[in-house]
Amino acid sequence: MSKSIAKAIEKMHLQLVILGFVSLFAALVDSNPACPNTLAVYNPNLRTACYNATWFIVPVSKSSVQSVVPHPLLTPPFSDKTLFPKGFPANAFPVFVATGYQNDIRMSALQIPALMAGSIYVPYTDRLKDGKTPFNYPVQNYIGGVNGQDVGGVVPSLVGTAEGTNIFVARFAPDNDAYAPIASNPNEFSAEVKQVIVPNPVSGPSVTPEAFDFDFITAKSPLYTAHTFHAVINQPVILTNLMCQRNTYYFNETFAKPVFRSGNVTLFGPTAGAVPSALAGRYTVQGGYSASGEIVGYNAESCASAAANLDPKALL
Fold it and tell me: Exposed, middle or buried by CB within 10 Å (0-12, 13-18, 19+), for 132?
């Protein structure tokens, strides 16, 4: 075999290896993080978007959770196997943590192409003090621009805070997708949220303490059901202005692509991060859920009205 032919074969082999490597990582990520907004046409005067996200449930001691929630806590229905098929750790309370990519955000003529969004919230909060109606208490909410534009979250955070939802500007990694591939066999993914306290979009250091991060794989034996996440995500959100809000998520589109996850969630406390110390910690081998959901964000209303007007179809 001539040297020229040998070199050509070697070059072709290298190209095939590179192509295989690129194809592998392309396969690890959903084909497109930007799921379409299909509900804006039916809700022109409400906030709508499509949220490609991952939600995790972490068990935190009930006393620690109560210390950050200014309302009584309900006893979650841990005996309901449609919600908690494998039970829940004793003396612990569920805290939900989420991060992802919001696409095609619309309200009337206003439109934002995309934003990154994350949150930490406590479900089963007894806002009405009736001992039975669950609400989500938002501990922290984060929002950031995509593709390196952290400041893209500044105006939405100010508007959201003025309307009763405390929102902090944040830096996400990745900031152009719901999560990033980090390994294969098994496929492993990560997502990270940092609060931007002092931004520096031009040069030099910035102050961006860690908020939380995910490291996860696809679950072989899910800890929860789709109904768990749908029912909890759709509990009305308690606002800072004595009102509440329905953020209704629907996961019934063909591109929802729900996948159960198993992974580690780290919440960084004030010493090294931006999360209340009572919730800080590394929670290993927890249950999660990745999916693309259509969102309808309703106007603020009384908490009793928000609870009474939940769409039961969204809870399934």
Answer: exposed
Half-sphere exposure of 78 (CA within 13 A, CB side): 12
Query: What are the pLDDT digits (tens) for 185-231?
Result: 999 999 999 998 866 555 555 788 999 999 999 999 999 999 999 99
Q: Are 256 and 233 in contact (CB under 8 A)?
A: no
Contact 209, 273 (CB under 8 A): yes
* Cβ burial, residue 295 (10 Å; 0-12/13-18/19+): buried
* 226 burial via Cβ count (<10 Å: 0-12, 13-18, 19+): middle
Ranges under pLDDT 70 in the chain: 1-32, 150-154, 158, 160, 162, 198-205
Q: What is the pLDDT at residue 121? A: 97
Helix (H, G, I), strand (E, B) or coil at 11: helix
Backbone angles phi, psi at 143, to 5 degrees: -145, 145
Q: What are phi and psi of 13, to 5 degrees?
A: -60, -45
**Contact predicate 153/145, CB 8 Å:** yes
43/149 Cα distance (integer angstroms): 29
Please give the Cα distance from 121 to 96 (Å, whole number): 5
Give residue 12's pLDDT: 32
Q: Would you state the structure tokens that stand for residue 244, as one six-digit string?
A: 């509440």
